[in-house]
Amino acid sequence: MSNRQIEIAAALNVVPPFADTAALVAEVERRKAFIKQCLRNAHVKVLVLGISGGVDSLTAGRLAQLSVEELRAETGDDGYQFIAVRLPYNIQHDEHDAAASMQFIRADVEDTVNIAGAVLGLSEQVAHLHGLTDARRDFVIGNAKARIRMVAQYTIANANNGLVIGTDHAAEAVMGFFTKFGDGACDLAPLSGLVKHQVRAIARHLGAPENLVEKVPTADLEELRPGKPDEEAHGVTYAQIDAFLHGEKVSEEAYAIIVRTYDNSQHKRELPFAP
């Protein structure tokens, strides 16, 4: 294990590999306790999360639902609720996976906000988009989609005096693979510190369908490349990222890509620059 691996894993609070099933179960219980404590500390009773159809929101969503169910049982207060919201841009290409995720999560409240009108309305008003290449414009608007989705989640949370859940985990954090003030914005991040295969392991333990557990991860923000795999954008696989974060040996190329990307995306993991 290199010094950089140790440094980066510590900065991201990476959870060590699960030694056995008992360790996995203990981590699930710790995460639920964290979610419940966040609600208590904020003196609110509602959680909101956008469900994409990927394993990250699937896992965070089910943990949220289980947590509010436990709070209701512990307190006798039915005010504790989880709102799962679908946030498609027109018709999502993997809508069947999003629907299956919602069916698995079994949220107290299910909602849908189609963000297409908001994104298109914004795009029409921003003249700076007009001179860009198709690829660059698609990328910029993709980030706008992520930010509009978070605006929608916070609007729902504000209307219900609740908190917004994020789905960031260590394998995405190390690559800066989130939109700043988009999916990177939230009130609590219950998957923080986990690597990708640990998220999948928790989802599997919770009973998620195997096709959703092992679904190819995609941010699905770009219209020119719908469903573009995360790993293609990374230039390395999640297996390599996970291995790096757990202090295992990876190829020199993978090591260089991960360290360079981590360094270049540091601003995304920090508070705004200040004098």
Automatic annotation (TrEMBL):
- Supply the source organism for this entry: Pseudomonas eucalypticola
Biological role = Catalyzes the ATP-dependent amidation of deamido-NAD to form NAD. Uses ammonia as a nitrogen source.
How is this protein organized at the quaternary level?
Homodimer.
**Where's the NAD/GMP synthase domain?**
28-272
Question: Which terms are listed as keywords in the entry?
Answer: ATP-binding, Ligase, Magnesium, Metal-binding, NAD, Nucleotide-binding
Q: Which reaction does it catalyse?
A: deamido-NAD(+) + NH4(+) + ATP = AMP + diphosphate + NAD(+) + H(+)
Where Mg(2+) binds, per the record, is at D56, E172
- Which CDD domains is this protein grouped with? NAD_synthase
EC identifiers of the protein? 6.3.1.5
Q: Which residues bind ATP?
A: G50, I51, S52, G53, G54, V55, D56, S57, T167, K196, T218
Residue ranges crossing the lipid bilayer per the database entry = none
Please list the residues that bind deamido-NAD(+): R147, K180, D187, H267, K268
Biological processes annotated in GO: NAD+ biosynthetic process
Which family would the database say this protein is a member of?
Belongs to the NAD synthetase family.
Pathway in which the depicted protein is active:
Cofactor biosynthesis; NAD(+) biosynthesis; NAD(+) from deamido-NAD(+) (ammonia route): step 1/1
- Quote the cellular component terms of the Gene Ontology held in the record: cytoplasm
Molecular functions per Gene Ontology: ATP binding; glutaminase activity; metal ion binding; NAD+ synthase (glutamine-hydrolyzing) activity; NAD+ synthase activity
Query: What is the official name of this protein in its record?
Result: NH(3)-dependent NAD(+) synthetase
